[in-house]
Amino acid sequence: MTKTIRFGAAGIAMLSALGMSTAAHADTATADATAEILEALQLDLTDGALDFGAIVVNGADTLTLQANGVMDCANKQVVCSGAVDNPLFTVQGTDGKAVTINLPTASIDLTRVGGTVGTSADTLTVDNFTSSEAGNEVTLSGGSATFTVGGTLDIGATQNAGIYEGTFDVSVDYS
After folding, report:
1. How is the chain split into domains, by residue range?
2. 52-60 long-range CB contacts below 8 Å, 24 or more apart?
3. For the whole prediction, is pTM greater than 0.90?
4. What is the pLDDT of residues 91-109, one digit of tens each?
């Protein structure tokens, strides 16, 4: 009886092994591999600056210079005079590709020339940056595109007279 069990167990193991080898049949599939090389993007400030013009302060207020150059000073605590300006940027790269415009997400400070850095009367804040392109995206036509930038100027009630300056960064990348 012991021999019968051994032969039976050996037979089952052998059949299992044979069955496993047939079930382990392999197959092969082929996939494509591709890559697209894009031209490096180049971004240049072509003209202008984010210039809110000359402002007479009668109290704290906020002015928005839209990316299309429109600034509404009606019913404000300030009097606006002088020309406003928007920076014009040119981006170059691969024709027909979409490019995302990355604007500052944090506010930047403008400091009065000759003023004290960090003093509220010598500091203006610019934030809420916008571009002239819907969704901050532009498609390169002929390998280039242009856009302008606007923003919001926050003015304190006791701003010192003078010229205020600062800088901000704009970047682009393929969408």
Report:
1. 42-174
2. 52/80, 52/84, 52/153, 53/80, 53/81, 53/82, 53/83, 53/84, 54/80, 54/81, 54/82, 55/79, 55/80, 55/81, 55/155, 56/81, 57/155, 57/156, 57/157, 57/159, 59/157, 60/155, 60/156, 60/157
3. no
4. 999 999 999 999 999 999 9
